[in-house]
Amino acid sequence: MGFSLTSLLGGSLGDAFSKIVGTFKLNPEKKAEFEAAIKAHEYELASKQAELESKLADYQAREIEAAASIIKAEAESQSWLPRNVRPFLLLLWGVLITLNFFIPLVAKFAKVDVPPLVLDPWVYKLTAIGFTGYVGFRSWEKIKDADK
Known about the structure:
The protein contains six helices and no strands.
């Protein structure tokens, strides 16, 4: 995944504590005492960091499983709306992007100046990912059903 505990903390737990304490003005004896305490408890800090990373990975796995179960429940629904709302919204999204390109082009023939909406590049990337995922999943689903 794109998120890690070390990116949040900027290193290990010991490094995070050192950075926090380093912002305070300590006399050299206290600072040396603190650094010695960190070195003495290095193993415990590493085990806590591993435990936190494990909990984060478990949470991310549960989140993905929950999202997958929702999509599966929608796909297996007897009602037409939950089964078709994602493909319909993807189609609507694609049509709106297409019209944003073609309406100003056609309007020039009518001597009307209609500027297209300026869309961020992530909109196009999201649309491409959505269409690719949907088409790929439907293709896989049809191949899977062909073996019956």
